[in-house]
Amino acid sequence: MKATSILLALLLSLALSGFAQQSASYDSTYARKLGADFRGMRQYVMVFLKKGPTTIADTAKRSALQRAHLDNIGKLAKEGKLILAGPFMDNTELRGIYLFAVDSLEEAQQLANTDPAVVAGTLIMELHPWYGSAALMEVPKIHSKIQKNSKL
């Protein structure tokens, strides 16, 4: 719960930075491309991935499932639906997050249900509509320029 509160506070501070003042360099074409409203914000769906009821003891099966999970993340990112994903590093019930650039919880649910770890029950999801900076849409493009190894 503490990690969730900290994450939400950080994301809220990023989101609120868009309210500061009108920028002299405002680019309406770029804003439309990112799906930004007049504040430079847009709707997303944040998915908290939590430890599921299923445990896989077999190391090879667990590794194969993790590989499939990472491959699915890459696929969703290439489709432009998954903007941000990553694990939490504190080994609690809260395992990671997805940030989907979609308009509905239902669409995010469908996308998250393509995750082999969710299908296998090693992860369960908690979905929340979220309003944040449309600049986050550029994270995948920026990330591709700074990652040395493209294989997750």
Automatic annotation (TrEMBL):
Statement: the UniProt record of this protein carries the keyword Signal: yes
Keyword vocabulary terms for this entry: Signal
Keyword Protease: no
Residues spanning the membrane: none
Coiled coil: none
Residues in the signal sequence: 1-20
Residue ranges occupied by any YCII-related domain in the UniProt entry: 45-127
Family: Belongs to the YciI family.
Name under which the protein is recorded: Uncharacterized protein YciI
